[in-house]
Design brief:
Layout: E1 9-13, E2 17-22, E3 28-33, E4 36-37, E5 53-54, E6 65-68, E7 71-74, E8 87-91, E9 95-101, E10 114-123, E11 126-135, E12 142-144, E13 146-148, E14 151-153, E15 165-169, E16 177-181, E17 184-190, E18 198-200, E19 211-213, E20 220-225, E21 230-236, E22 242-246, E23 254-261, E24 280-282, E25 287-296
Length: 297
């Protein structure tokens, strides 16, 4: 373990990769191999974030509010973790663990005792990200969702266009996507696959907001340049019940791969947090962990 300082950014390196993480939001802001940047660099012309962590909700609430034990709470899309400073609780040359804990301020919008720990570990040409949520209450349950929202540069090479790339999944399936209307799910679904297990990133793919697989049958997706058949990187995410894929508009040179334990509200939801689809209930003093891995190929 190396000495932990009070910096705003931290850099990890191994023989292949260089990772940069911010204290704010515990957000990954750079992942490089051979000086090639794989993480979207938050150009506000398109979208001003890198890889936000979604906690304690994923997606949007109806009217940006929820009910718990008879009280109404206000919370914006994707929760508050991405906008708060984490504390570094452990760091080595190739790993770092950051933690966000509940405060009296957080309890005004999320009335629970919790700790959210985010651990990044470099392993050869891969980056493993682990989320651990701890219910730090001695008596009360904790209701929450957790999700990843990393954005990747796409295209990966100058001279390429985004619509030359395919997302190749680990199963030759073609699930339909939940349809989003004004940020909420409805009863409709839409066909997005032209070929089982392969999704071309064509310019109109995100015209109707994010693609959402619910339930998610996949555990890995790989970015492949179709003309050359070169694979650039993959994201592996076992046992995530939901998967989102998103970009902000037709011309945005990035694609987000978003494994989720939680999902945006359905327009007919009754706003009760304990009855929200995808919500996780954690007993007093309980712990929940999940992880995903980015591999540069």
């Amino acid at each position: 373990m190396t000495e932990i300082s009070n910096k705003k950014e931290y850099v990890l390196k191994n023989n292949y990769l260089t990772l940069t993480v911010k204290k704010k939001g515990a957000e990954m802001v750079s992942l490089k191999k051979d000086n090639r940047e794989y993480i979207w660099q938050a150009n506000t012309q398109f979208w001003g974030r890198y890889a936000p962590i979604l906690f304690p909700i994923v997606g949007r609430l109806i009217d940006n509010e929820y009910l718990y034990k008879g009280k109404c709470y206000i919370m914006n899309q994707h929760g508050f973790a991405r906008d708060n400073d984490f504390e570094v609780i452990d760091k080595t040359d190739n790993s770092i663990c950051l933690e966000l804990s509940s405060t009296e301020k957080s309890k005004k919008i999320f009335p629970f005792n919790f700790k959210l720990q985010v651990t990044y570990t470099l392993e050869d040409k891969s980056l493993r990200t682990e989320y651990t949520i701890i219910n730090s209450s001695e008596n009360d349950e904790l209701y929450f969702s957790i999700g990843a929202h990393p954005a990747f540069n796409c295209p990966f090479e100058e001279g390429h266009s985004r619509n030359e790339y395919q997302l190749i999944f680990d199963k030759e399936l073609a699930p339909e996507s939940d349809v989003i209307e004004e940020g909420l799910r409805c009863t409709k679904t839409s066909k997005v696959f032209e070929q089982n297990g392969s999704l071309t990133v064509h310019n109109s793919l995100f015209d109707n907001d994010a693609i959402i697989f619910n339930p998610n049958p996949f555990s890995k997706v790989t970015f492949v340049h179709k003309p050359s058949q070169k694979a650039y990187m993959s994201v592996a995410f076992k046992n995530y019940p939901y998967l989102g894929i998103w970009s902000s508009n037709q011309d945005s040179p990035f694609v987000c791969i978003e494994p989720w334990h939680g999902i945006t509200d359905h327009k007919d939801h009754n706003k009760e947090l304990s009855q929200k689809e995808g919500i996780i209930k954690l007993v007093a003093n309980g712990k929940f962990s999940c992880e995903f891995t980015i591999e540069v190929l």
